[in-house]
Write a structure and sequence with these properties.
With 413 residues, this protein is α/β, with parallel strands linked by helices. Helices cover 39% and strands 16% of the residues. It has a 7-stranded parallel sheet with strand order 3-2-1-4-5-6-7, sandwiched between helices. A 6-stranded parallel sheet has the order 10-9-8-11-12-13, with helices on both faces.
């Protein structure tokens, strides 16, 4: 077996797309001959990062080394609430960097790996990587799930942005290979660096795991069901344009018996009052964070799955892992996403509708078309859906990642 050292602050039992994607990839690397040790947060049972206290399932050929962090302590959490800017150097996980690096270096000394990989976000995972690199000189693969300083979601002051830019540049300079989840993100991040650095960039998309599919069940009678899984960011990525479009449709022809929309995830309940004010509280429901099994079951019951992204002045570099996970359900997907970008490109290749996330009229028209198709029994995926989706199967994506690890960790690689 080849030994791999990994750093990922978020791992099961934590809830989140990063925990899901990283654990899934490391487990499938085991099938390709890798034995992984992953340094991750040791969350407090019942605390903010492990609220249900349920033990995670074991992962084949993956050993977790949990490292506690002061970020979970009440004094630190209170300080972050009082002075939110403290969270942005580069993130609240910065407090975990030093103890995580010490743990990783101990592991590398006790059982030397061929190399190591850091998975971000959070960006502090890459800061752990810098310390490992300086201490061990092991070959390093840095994985970026999103753009860092180029992200439209980055809300920092000038000093914080300059500090983040220095951190990002040092990671790109020191790492032997950089992995992005789509070409748009790779181009956006790497365009500001020298050509010699840009040659280190690779693209491996997120992958879905069909083993997580709930058992198939016949469709229950009822209205057309639209389901969104994931979080919102107030003022950035919200369901408000969709809610307004539904209100317009409902005024023209009541939707109560024809449509049900469900939002599941952290912070979604913040928009419950807006739905009531717009008069669509009867057809829209909001559920907080749920165990992953419940989220998958809700997606399996959907007739149409929803992607909602933030508006963008230019092409969007984001390809959320939930969109990739949706593929395994073989359901139509409605993408409220910038009409140019990574998500739009994938959705068009699937022949799924793409609508600008702030175009209320177009959103309403697209939902009306979906309702009409459903009433005629014509709501199904395209002939190309399976062919396109297959390239995102976790076996395919992990094989590509495996190839990058082998080439990067090879002597002289």
């Amino acid at each position: 077996m080849r030994r791999l050292l990994a750093v990922s602050w978020e791992m099961p039992p934590m809830y989140g797309p990063r925990a899901t994607q990283v654990s899934r990839t490391l487990e499938h690397l085991g099938e390709l001959g890798w034995e992984s040790t992953v340094v991750c947060l040791a969350p407090r049972r019942g605390g903010p990062h492990w609220p249900d206290g349920r033990d995670p399932a074991p992962l084949g050929n993956v050993r977790r080394v949990g490292v506690p962090s002061r970020e979970e302590s009440l004094p630190v959490r209170a300080a972050f609430r009082l002075v939110p800017s403290l969270r942005r150097w580069p993130d609240s996980e910065r407090l975990w960097v030093a103890p995580a690096a010490r743990a990783a270096i101990r592991e590398a000394s006790a059982q030397p790996p061929l190399g190591f990989v850091t998975f971000a976000q959070p960006w502090s995972d890459h800061l752990v990587g810098l310390r490992i690199r300086h201490s061990t000189s092991l070959p390093w693969v840095a994985h970026f799930s999103d753009p860092w300083t180029d992200s439209p979601y980055l809300r920092v002051n000038g000093s914080q942005r300059r500090a983040a830019s220095r951190m990002e540049a040092e990671v790109i300079r020191q790492a032997d290979a950089i992995v992005f989840v789509n070409g748009q993100t790779a181009d956006l991040v790497m365009r500001k660096f020298p050509a010699s650095w840009r040659r280190k960039a690779h693209v491996v998309p997120h992958g879905f795991d069909r083993r997580r599919l709930p058992p198939a069940a016949p469709r229950e009678p009822g209205p057309l069901r639209l389901v969104y899984t994931g979080r919102f960011y107030r003022g950035i990525r919200t369901p408000l344009p969709l809610l307004r479009a539904l209100a317009d449709l409902d005024r023209a022809q009541p939707l109560g018996a024809r449509l049900a929309v469900q939002f599941i995830g952290p912070q979604v309940q913040e928009f419950e009052a807006a739905a009531r004010e717009l008069g669509v509280g009867g057809i829209v429901s909001f559920a907080p964070r749920r165990p992953i099994e419940d989220v998958l079951a809700a997606a399996a019951r959907a007739d149409v799955l929803l992607v909602i992204d933030a508006p963008s002045a230019g092409p969007s570099p984001f390809l959320p892992s939930k969109l990739v996970d949706y593929l395994m359900f073989r359901k139509p997907i409605l993408g409220l996403t910038p009409v140019e970008g990574a998500s739009a490109d994938l959705l068009r290749s699937l022949a799924c509708p793409v609508v600008a996330p702030d175009d209320v009229r177009a959103i309403g028209e697209t939902v009306r078309v979906l309702l009409d198709r459903a009433s005629r029994g014509e709501l199904h995926v395209s002939a190309d859906f399976d062919r396109v989706a297959e390239s995102f199967d976790i076996h395919r994506t992990t094989e590509r990642f495996h190839g990058i690890l082998v080439r990067t960790f090879a002597p002289g690689g």
